[in-house]
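Task: sequence design from structure.
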């Protein structure tokens, strides 16, 4: 059995600016609920601020 590569993408994050496709720099990471993290990302080109919620794969699913 070979696991599909999708399993490596359990924590989707913004890899590039949705506006201009430039790279994003992490400004700060704020701990959220249930192990989630709020990533504040700033575009290195247009300077746009983007907030991304990252859920760790081992986070409990129960609310
Ligand atoms: Zn941008």
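Answer:
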């Amino acid at each position: 059995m070979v696991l599909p590569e999708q399993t490596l993408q359990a924590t989707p994050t913004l890899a590039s600016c949705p506006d201009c496709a430039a790279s994003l720099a992490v400004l700060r990471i704020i701990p959220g609920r249930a192990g989630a993290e709020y990533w504040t990302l700033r575009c290195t080109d247009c300077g746009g601020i983007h907030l991304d919620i990252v859920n760790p794969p081992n986070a409990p699913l129960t609310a």
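The chain has one domain: 14-63.
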